[in-house]
Amino acid sequence: MAPILRIEHLVKVYPTGTRALDDVSLDVERGEFVVLIGLSGSGKSTLLRCINRLVEPTSGRILLDGTDMARARGSELRRMRRRIGMIFQQFNLVRRSSVFANVLAGRLGSRPLWRTVAMRPTTEDVALAFENLGRVGIVGKAYSRADALSGGQQQRVGIARALMQRPDLMLADEPVASLDPATSHSVMKYLEEINRKDGITVLCSLHFLSLARRYGTRVIALKDGRVAFDGKPVDIDEVRFKEIYGEDAVEVEIGVGPTADERAAAESADATAAAMRAHLETLDTH
Amino acid sequence: MAEYFTARGLPVPRELERNILTDWRRLGAIAAVLLVLFVGLRITSIDTSRANPEYAGSVLVQLLQWDFTIMSPQNEFETFWETAGGQMIVTIFLGIIATAFSIVVALPLSFLGARNIMTGNPITAAIYAVARVVFTIVRSIDVLIVVILAVIIFGLGNAAGVFGLAFHNIGVLGKLYSEAIEGIDPGPGEAITATGANRFQVIWTAVLPQIVNPFISFTIYRLDANVRLAPIIGLVGGGGIGVLLFHTMNLLNYRQAGLIIFMIILTVAVMDFISAQIRRRLI
User: Model-level pTM greater than 0.90?
Assistant: First the structure.
């Protein structure tokens, strides 16, 4: 069976001259949970946004089930986008609208314009919206304003909105980077569930390698816009890690409760304070 | 002071480096302002020698001795709407109608003048630039000048006044609306685009909910401004209570003029209060 997503020689050069993606080629098989890792600015976000053309690729092909997404225009592009769900680091909900309206928005592309303008969703869509809200456990918040919810709840609304499209592929751009460790796991578990139960292929960028190891069936690392590693999570050893993140990097764990990275943050804050004190003392002695 | 830094091999902060007495940029700025004021005083030749405090005082007293005859019809041909009270009400509605006209034009145009909506291809980017230039030009022509020109087209009266107020207001509201649209969070629009919705659906679902409150707030602010301006446009032939004020002043009928001025002040104050109350609740 053909891969659900095949990327061939994808290049993205921003108008500023930044070469965000430099000849990226990869295949994603149906049902995989692919985690994208890499430093900030390594091209993760650009790659995800090129796939559904929120960012226009400079050259290369993006084959979704054999059809070139990079060449699609107008209504064909919108039809292809419907098959790809996406969730975002900042959730990107319409903050003043209700949770229900936000979830329903995931279905816009499949419905005629007048239903949007007249606010008359089909009964089927309403039922689907409540079903998806139920799946992510926030039916009780359906009538709340989106900005009244906590970060983790907002991201679950984001997942429910993407599920409205009944997507084949789910893109997740740093979905837990704005959340605390415990909430991160709860959101990742919903992504894992739609991957396992619904067979939706997931392509998810993450900051923490520990999360990548826990949830990914495959890890792709980007470095300076190129694929630096592509393989099983367990194959990322100390050497690989330093290749991806650079010589000075130290791996941190993200777990439930007071985590290693929280301790690290506290330690680094202490260290900064100590350094400042030391600096002030040297000033005084002069 | 600077020795503290130099002794320790640190760069001296810019603020400490300057000496106020020898800073030529500061001295230059002060000299430039003084020069402008001196030249201004010379060429305007402001002359207060002809002021007549005694006469002014007697006029002031008359302005406060209100003559209420203008509150009722002067002859059998006049109705309530020709009286000062009627004209005040007409004037308020001149402002309201002018605002309504300008909303209808500015609302769709403001989307064309919003950078974040119009970027993407060269054609829309060009439309954006044109829309912004049009707003700026329209806005830069003062209401009174537009009314004077409109009198040539419509003749003296309410039509010229409404046209003048509406024309200028299109420029102002267009700019305010456009900037409100530019200030929205782009994230929701990006998310709705990713679901396969078209541009109109994105605007309807992700942009509109974010701009409703700023739009209402700006509209009330401009309504307030237009009702404030409406009595003035009568002075140049734009209709409303300003015409009545102009006539009474020309006839040196200060008792009637005083009452009209008081009515205008009262209206503007009430409008200002209501507008502030509504806008406060919106934010």
Answer: no
Q: How many angstroms separate the CA atoms of A224 and A59, rounded?
A: 17
**Cβ–Cβ under 8 Å, residues B182 and B116:** yes
Q: Are residues B140 and B99 located together in one domain of the fold?
A: yes
Residues B20-65: tens digit of each pLDDT: 777 788 889 999 999 999 999 999 988 888 889 999 999 999 999 9
Contact with chain B for residue A162, Cβ under 8 A = yes
DSSP 8-state class, residue B10 = P
Q: How far is B207 from chain A (nearest CA, A)?
A: 8
**What is the SS3 assignment for A60?**
strand
The burial of B195, by beta-carbon neighbours within 10 Å (0-12 exposed, 13-18 middle, 19 or more buried), is given as buried
Cβ separation of B193 and A54 shorter than 8 Å? Answer: yes
| Facing residue for A92 by CB, picked from B187, B196, B197 | B187
Interface of A with B in 38-57 (CB under 8 A): 52, 54
Q: Look up residue A260 and give its DSSP letter.
A: H
CB contact under 8 A, B195 and A85: yes
Say if residue B15 is in the same domain as residue B103: no
CB pairs under 8 A between A and B: 88
Q: What is the ipTM of this complex?
A: 0.80
End-to-end CA distance of chain A: 73
What's the domain range around B28? 2-44
Instruction: Identify the CA nearest to A228 among candidates A47, A87, A5, A31.
Output: A47
Q: Nearest-CA distance from B206 to chain A in Å?
A: 6
pLDDT tens sequence across A79-111 = 999 999 999 999 999 998 999 999 999 988 788
Q: How many domains does chain B have?
A: 2
Same domain, B76 and B199: yes
Specify whether B27 is located in the same domain as B129. Answer: no
Residue B225 within any structural domain of the chain: yes
